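Tutorial, part two.
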Amino acid sequence: MIISGICGSLRNESWNKLLLEIFLEKISKNSDFKTDIIDVSKFPLYNADIEAKGLPESVLSAKEKVANSDLIVFASPSYNSSISGVMKNIVDWISRPPKVIENKYTLVIGATPGLSGTLLGYTHLNHILLSLGMNVLNQPRLLVATIDKQLEPNGKIISEELSKLFDNSVNQLIKKLNN
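Running the prediction step on this input gives:
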């Protein structure tokens, strides 16, 4: 089984990128699943004129990885009570023909220094992905509030609560995928 991650933040010190890296690393260590993070940093803003000339190489590469994955994990920050523009742009590009996301399994995770745990962005992204024909898993739910108080920028988990949440989420996902 291949699990690929996509992060909706381009920031070098992104909490969501770190959350995704740790989550996928723990999955790899606790299963025989292969994991990968898909680079979306070079995606242009979606533009049908660009698409008409042929998909950019960065988009083609990402779509190929999505097509070869059994599960896509989207790590999305919450911007202004919704998803980031980066995440929307990613979804816009990978949902274009050829259709590689239809019936693909997906999971949305997210982290924020705020108190919401990215809940509104999570809800919006799940709705978008469902409308595009993806099979959205609603569990495990790895939505982390006050991430800056639970995780150091170097990836060291400093909260027992977050450590347990990671372990429970990883174990729950592995069990679900093995059934």
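Helices lie at 15-29, 48-52, 57-67, 85-94, 119-131, 160-178. In part three we will examine how such features are distributed along the chain.
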